[in-house]
Amino acid sequence: MERKKQFELKTPDLGDTDKIELIKWYTQVGDLVKEGQEILELVTDKAAFPVESPINGILSEIRVPAGAVVQKYEVLGVMELAS
Predict the structure, then answer these.
(1) Count of H helices and E strands in the chain?
(2) Per-residue pLDDT averaged across 32-42, rounded?
(3) What is the DSSP string of 39-66?
(4) How confident is the model at residue 1, as a pLDDT?
(5) Which CATH code for domain 6-81?
(6) 1 burial via Cβ count (<10 Å: 0-12, 13-18, 19+)
(7) Which residue in 42, 32, 46, 57 sits closest to 12, CA to CA?
(8) How far is CA 32 from the centre of its chain?
(9) Residue 56 to residue 36: CA distance in whole angstroms
(10) Are 55 and 81 in contact (CB under 8 A)?
(11) Which strand (E) or helix (H) includes residue 22?
(12) Would you list the domain boundaries of the chain?
């Protein structure tokens, strides 16, 4: 059985901020996502930041639900590369 390549979606470095909140997932587990498509939105005390998919793939796991406060470089979800 071939194992699919996985990619971890991590909180990007949004600068010097104490609080980053994941406010919305635009995709669900199992959704096919294209590179550059917005998949979630983060907000800090300064601004909202849409996060785009870095790959063409399928969202296979959501590790952090909407409404959660996250840290820089925290794994938010997992994607599998589309074949």
Answers:
(1) 0, 8
(2) 96
(3) EEEEE-SS-EEEEE-SSSEEEEEE-S-T
(4) 53
(5) 2.40.50.100
(6) exposed
(7) 42
(8) 14
(9) 8
(10) yes
(11) strand 20-25
(12) 6-81
What is the distance between the alpha carbons of residues 20 and 42, in angstroms, rounded to a whole number? 7
Q: Which residues is 43 bridged to in the sheet?
A: 21, 48
Q: For residue 53, give the nearest of 28, 30, 79, 14 by alpha carbon.
A: 79
Residues, the chain, total? 83
pLDDT the model gives residue 18 = 77
Q: Do 23 and 44 contact (CB within 8 A), yes or no?
A: no
pTM above 0.70, yes or no: yes
How far is it, in rounded angstroms, from Cα 33 to Cα 6? 14
